[in-house]
Amino acid sequence: MAERTKFILDEADMPTRWYNVVPDLPEPPPPPLHPGTREPVGPDDLAPLFPQALIAQEVTTERYVDIPEEVLDVYRLWRPSPLFRARRLEKALGTPARIYYKYEGVSPVGSHKPNTAVPQAFYNAAEGVTRLTTETGAGQWGSALAFACATFGLECEVWQVRASYDQKPYRKLMMETFGATVHPSPSELTESGRAILAADPGSTGSLGIAISEAVEQAAQADNTRYALGSVLNHVLLHQTIIGEEALKQFELAGDTPDVLVGCTGGGSNFGGLAFPFLREKLAGRMDPVIRAVEPAACPTLTRGKYAYDFGDTAGLTPLLKMHTLGHDFIPDPIHAGGLRYHGMSPLISHIYELGLIEALAIGQEDCFAAGVRFARTEGIIPAPEPTHALAACIQEALRCKETGEEKVILTALCGHAHLDLPAYGAYLAGDISDHALPDEALEKSLAGLP
Fold it and tell me: The pTM is what?
């Protein structure tokens, strides 16, 4: 009998609850602080930006949160997503390791982002909100929110980082096809955008700047709220459906991961896969090494400072205790992947500080080489973001080749690169170069911490 390549759950087996890791941690994470008073923020402080249901999820101490039936109904368009055994990659590497990848590229927009965009749009619509604003870098999140807003009849306005707006026109077209309005950021439409352009007319933008613009717009209109695609607790909560499905799929495979690897920018895809496995690890039911992989050009966990910082450049958001490169940090525009955010999810930062996960940074040349290797063996061209995890996954598999260990490796393939092919084109033409963040640039951006 042929060996099995993919492990697929029936719709009836799709998880019906999201998992909140906070109650299972040895100690709770530090609270967000009000930027003015430096006191912990309360629900009223967040009300101008988020609906009450999401604020409740942000601070919940419940271990599980039920997924509304209306959200499950939309999830069924692509969920449960498949778990693959990467047999062809294993063979090409000559490794005794068994490599699995959880593939989120089957969603309508080709990434994991709709897992949270759909519930965010649902909860906002349920509370009478008619318009959502957001930021996007590479365009994955903006595409997901545009799709979710179309599903629930909301207007969607997106500020896209200027460097990506220029490099990735098809992402903009995807957002507009779903009905969203897209602006390059920094823009002349907001005070924060105008201030950045006055200081630097040629600014290539950053996620921090785009967040400032979207937050400013949301706070000024009663019918409008803001939606964030990563970083915050409720976003990571929604993504845990990935890991909950993967646990069931490993039962089908009769296997248990020894190493779990995910790429990290803001942390939602990594947390979504890792948190349910971390629960099992903390309970003593399995013991995987959990490894976060980030770009050398934007190394928040490995070189950032664990400190309170703003989530945006203009200082409009609450102060978050997180690994940060400084809210003024602007990644080099030659960095071709996403994963450009100046901070890491406070929850992942806290878990890293507790010593429950590892982190490493990899240069983009190695990442794209891994992406091409994966495409030529497994047939999926991975988005630039998960190539970071694939590079680390291949490193681990090659170590197993040297030691003879038959480790089981699980990685998160959070999306495909069908709209990111210009980045591969640059790599194949030899125009991609590694950009490690210089110490002096890091010191400069960290000097602005509040």
Answer: 0.96
